[in-house]
Design a protein that fits this description.
Blueprint: E1 5-10, H1 13-17, E2 18-28, H2 32-39, E3 43-44, E4 49-53, E5 56-60, E6 63-64, E7 81-84, H3 87-97, E8 102-112, E9 115-125, H4 128-153
Antiparallel strand pairs: 1-8, 2-7, 2-9, 3-6, 4-5, 5-7, 8-9
């Protein structure tokens, strides 16, 4: 049976700022009003990161706006949320993250069937010259596509 996925939010800056070495799918611990707010698409992954504390994985800086029709059940939009992953995988990631230059960054948030999942990447930061090379490559590719399109017009 195929599982259906629906993307809710993406962190577009990740591909520009980091080399993504490996990706992982994790569950996320949420309360009811947060899920309702996520269904409305009111989530921001822009400045979020993941950390490992005492053998548990957490996402920091993820903003889930308060649910409009919630009252006392609304949680703090910027609270630290626990990610659900197997203990062995977390310990493996902890060893890798302790190396210099590696960090865990959320890439996207999506529904898989009826559950909210977070795609997290093991990332290494890009240097300024790497970013310039990527920009030059994108610009050259765009120019080539534009030239081909112009050529096909005639």
């Amino acid at each position: 049976m195929k599982s259906s996925t629906k993307t809710i939010a993406q962190n577009k800056i990740v591909h520009r700022e980091y080399f993504i070495e490996e990706t992982f799918e994790t569950g996320i611990e949420l309360c009811g009003t947060e899920v309702k707010s996520i269904r409305q698409g009111r989530v921001n992954l822009k400045d979020s990161w993941c950390s490992i504390v005492d053998g548990e994985l957490y996402v920091n800086g993820m903003n889930i706006s308060p649910y409009d029709h919630g009252n006392i059940f609304n949680k703090d939009p910027m609270r630290v949320r626990k990610l659900l992953m197997h203990k062995k995988e977390i310990l493996k990631l902890y060893g890798v993250v302790k190396q210099t230059g590696y960090s865990l960054i959320p890439i996207s948030l999506y529904f898989k069937d009826s559950k909210v999942k977070l795609q997290m990447g093991l990332c290494k930061g890009k240097k300024l010259y790497d970013k310039r090379a990527d920009m030059a490559e994108r610009s050259a590719k765009r120019d080539m596509e534009r030239a081909v399109k112009e050529r096909q017009r005639f």
